Amino acid sequence: xxxxxxxxxxxxxxxxxxxxxxxxxxxxxxxxxxxxxxxxxxxxxxxxxxxxxxxxxxxxxxxxxxxxxxxxxxxxxxxxxxxxxxxxxxxxxxxxxxxxxxxxxxxxxxxxxxxxxxxxxxxxxxxxxxxxxxxxxxxxxxxxxxxxxxxxxxxxxxxxxxxxxxxxxxxxxxxxxxxxxxxxxxxxxxxxxxxxxxxxxxxxxxxxxxxxxxxxxxxxxxxxxxxxxxxxxxxxxxxxxxxxxxxxxxx
Length: 251
Fold this sequence. Notes:
Blueprint: H1 10-38, H2 46-62, E1 66-70, E2 82-85, H3 92-99, E3 105-109, H4 118-124, E4 128-130, H5 135-150, E5 155-157, H6 175-183, E6 187-193, H7 195-198, E7 210-215, H8 229-245
Parallel strand pairs: 1-7, 2-5, 2-6, 3-4, 3-5
Antiparallel strand pairs: 6-7
Helix pairs in contact: 1-2, 1-4, 2-3, 5-6, 6-8
């Protein structure tokens, strides 16, 4: 359920414009610059991930919000998996980087690589751009992602391919299921709640609130083939949709 008032009280507009926005911009610039410098010697990406984790956690704090993680034990059940979440806000990215406790790669729209500071980090840390417009480029990106999974690197993806405009779940693209099946690794559903209220699409002012990250039971793909892509995508979407309303069951 969306709780953000409309129109947003002027206090939050002034707070964002006068304090939170500038602080977040400067903090992001600082972290991106440090990560850029560290990337010269950090060939395995551990230090860069630590910086990204620090950035994500504290960016959320700068928005005057808190992250609550439910089902955190599901992050540790498999060493390699595809992690997939609903996409509600630009703030989803710091929430994800601040929540996942180990190094991973994110598969995201290539447009983000054009952003100052954010693009620096994405490019230097080995994150994976995907071109949803060009089918040949999409296949190439997915092939590279499968290789990363098989080499032991966990992967994160937003299966909706873009942010929701109204807080409701959009149709899922099949990329997350395809990657998990091809690499024969589990797919872990993640449901974000509260982040849409914090910063919905087409807005630029924060409404601080409680953010919840629900991590579901891994869905195993051993023995599945790509013909079951649609089946797995539907199961993933239904699971995340249920988790948005109620916590994921604990094994």
